[in-house]
Amino acid sequence: MNIQSAGKKLFVLDTNVLMHDPTSIFRFQEHNVFIPMVVLEELDHAKKGLSDVSRNVRQVSRFLDELIRDADQQTINAGLPLSRIEHSLNGEREFDGRLYFQTRQLSHLLPPDLPGQIADNSILSIVLALGKEYPDVNVILVSKDINMRIKAAALQINAEDYHNDQTIEDIELLYNGTMALDSDFWEEHGGKMESWQENNNTYYRVNGPLVAEWYPNQYLYMEGEDNFEAIVKSREGETAVLQLARDYRTKHNSIWGISAKNREQNFALNALLDPNVDFVTLIGSAGTGKTLLALAAGLSLTLESKLYLEIIMTRETMPVGEDIGFLPGTEEEKMAPWMGALMDNLELLGSRSGTTEWEQGASQNVMMNRVKIRSLNFMRGRTFLNRYLIIDEAQNLTPKQMKTLITRAGPGTKIICIGNLAQIDTPYLTATSSGLTYVVDRFKSWPNSAHITLRRGERSRLADFASDNL
């Protein structure tokens, strides 16, 4: 096995990297990849099942089978080519890394506290042996497991997280959907401004250097007495068309009895109620009103405007505490315990829709008949026509799961993704690699999508104090 190549690194992959991203073996460009035998054993144990992890493992096995097919022992020892062509701004660039399997015994004495029978410790032993056998090669362990990387650091092994699944390097760089305009904005951009009214909406066409930084359906505002708030409806170069945002803070403009409590909530309602926006993402901490606003807008569009046949709500069933085991009943009955937020908000919306107890009860029954609860486990292969689909707790979904859900949308369907990137419960997912972060970044330039980050909690002074001080 000759893995000494000038300027190339050797990345040893932990099992969880392959389970997380089946294409990870192709993500190291011109560098070489090494897979220990114990990793193949762990993949073999995890290949059965219907979970996404099992599907990923089976895909890894198919990739490896394609690479090793028709290869003789000499070719395997020399490394299987992972050559591929990647298109970039600088033209086509070919990467020629190689994949190496462990084909012989590799071991290195570990401290007595780290016996080699444990899979993680066996991998650490192999990394140490490779470093000793090839001192001129930069051997790096790649693992999604934080404890694995800590043990590697204690043994003076170079270890890294798998970064290719990260949408952005820093979550603070994530697009937030809004932009504050300076007080001199109109002086610089209002010289050739045009304005007109159409369908009870006011539009402006503005030109200037700042326009090039805007995204479709981005929300612009200006502090001060004018309280200017507008939506970027289209942009081409340094020219954009703005539409004045509707004000849903007033009671006569309330939606299903709900009024916006702040600027971000007002922008969210503008996006949720716009029939030309097919995909909306709402990110915010607990109590910012994400679920309530999405449901209120959905009920208005379904029961009053009749743009959609029904509201479908789903979420990842990831428990916060101990799992309570199997749940009896139908799909909706099994999902009911996970939908406490939905039921709480429906109860609130029902109480706002009538003056007497009888009217409130009747409204509650009408709403429940139009709101369906569905499990993510049964989404694959379905197509939703003219539905208002709410994906709750979307921060716990991987980019692949998010793609599976969004591609279920048929004609006339609107999808709302809501979540809190500070409360991720899925193992190996972070704020920068979450499927919610992924779709916010990928959809920000699409003219039929909108995103808003809600920052102010509106539950109670008790909840606000707890959020700031606990």
Descriptive notes:
GO terms for molecular function: ATP binding. Belongs to the PhoH family. In the N-terminal section; belongs to the PINc/VapC protein family. Residues 9-150 form the PIN domain. This is Phosphate starvation-inducible protein PhoH. One of its GO terms (cellular component) is cytosol. With 470 residues, the protein is an alpha/beta fold. It has three domains: 9-160, 5'-nuclease (Rossmann fold, 3-Layer(aba) Sandwich), CATH 3.40.50.1010; 172-244, Elongation Factor Tu (Ef-tu), domain 3 (Beta Barrel), CATH 2.40.30; 251-469, P-loop containing nucleotide triphosphate hydrolases (Rossmann fold, 3-Layer(aba) Sandwich), CATH 3.40.50. The protein is 32% helix and 21% strand. It has 15 helices and 20 strands. The protein has helices at residues 15-20, 37-45, 52-68, 73-78, 119-133, 146-154, 185-189, 263-272, 290-304, 331-335, 340-352, 357-370, 399-406, 435-443, 461-469, and strands at 9-13, 32-35, 80-81, 84-88, 91-95, 98-101, 138-142, 159-160, 178-180, 194-198, 201-207, 219-222, 228-236, 239-244, 279-284, 310-315, 371-373, 387-392, 414-419, 449-454. Strands 3-6-2-1-7-8 form a six-stranded mixed beta sheet. A six-stranded mixed beta sheet has the order 9-12-13-14-11-10, with no helix packed on it. A six-stranded parallel beta sheet has the order 17-16-18-19-15-20, sandwiched between helices. Helix 9 crosses helix 11 and helix 13 packs across helix 14. The protein is elongated. The model is unreliable at 85-93 and 318-325 (pLDDT under 50).
